[in-house]
Amino acid sequence: MKMTAEHYAALEGRIAQIVAQIPAHVDSLRTDPRVKDLRTRVVWDVYHSTRMHQLYSPQEWDYLDSHIETATKRALRNLGVDVGNLTK
């Protein structure tokens, strides 16, 4: 994971605030015909809901998509949300 410890802690803290809402969101996505890859969709929906862009400038939050995805998955796993087995 290429994210700094400070940035990761901020991301995980923001995800912790919404973790209780994730199962209901997953259930709503399962029946959405536009969703092709449920796991990826959930990870990115969770990431975007954190609104990290409000905490950091684009120059400070300069990560590749793969780094963001890995950090978000790790934070979800640490918070007890297993996105590894999500299927439609």
Written overview of the protein:
With 88 residues, the chain is an all-alpha fold. It has one domain. Helices cover 57% and strands 0% of the residues. The relative contact order is 0.23. The model has no long low-confidence stretch (mean pLDDT 93).
Helix content: 55-70%
Mean pLDDT comes to 93
User: Strand count, sense and closure of the main sheet?
Assistant: none
What is the rounded Rg? 13 Å
Show unreliable segments.
Answer: none
Distance between the termini: 28 Å
Taken together, the total number of domains comes to 1
Give the amount of beta strand, in percent: under 5%
Structural class: mainly alpha
Features:
88 residues; mainly alpha; 0% strand
Write a brief structural summary.
With 88 residues, this protein is mostly helical.
Q: What is the topology?
A:
Layout: H1 5-18, H2 22-30, H3 38-50, H4 65-78
Helix pairs in contact: 1-3, 1-4, 3-4
